[in-house]
Amino acid sequence: MGSTTEELCRRCKTGDAEAASELLGLHYERIFAYFRRLCGHEADACDLTQKTFCKVWRSIGSYEGRAAFPTWLHGIAHHVYVDWRRVKNHFDSQSDEWWLTCAAEGPSPLEEVVGRELSHQLYGLVEDLEEPTRETVHLHYYQGLTIQETAEALAIATSTVKYRLRAAVDLMKQKLLKTESQKL
Length: 184
What we know:
Oligomer: single chain
Number of helices: 9
CATH topology: Butyryl-CoA Dehydrogenase, subunit A, domain 3
CATH superfamily: PhyR, sigma-like (SL) domain
């Protein structure tokens, strides 16, 4: 992504619409998937993705390359999401049909290893996490950002990202063990 993305950013700064379109094509699906997981509705994810890229085009001139473009982009997406969340509470429990629309085109490593039921449980547990922790999990595990990139996108310390991820994993383990012991 390095030089190609950086070259596209440079061209976008000069008003090159073709470069903007190409940059959008490279990153649209990841940002859309990020929002779809966080907000739970396709229409909201479309709106938030569009708002994010509008903000990107308005502020591309301020992009200096200090962070990788995807990190900078996810930082903008994070702020768009936070603003959206302030307006109203969008989290209702999700239907099984919704969870099926969130699946990747192929089976994820998690689904291959532990099966669809556990995957469904884990996604549900992630959605039950407190907002800052849930968003950290989404960026790191679902979007594949590194600890450093996640910290930069959320404007927090890497130690906070590590703490949130560890707390999330520990809490989900406890809840899964409790659920399994209740089944026996």
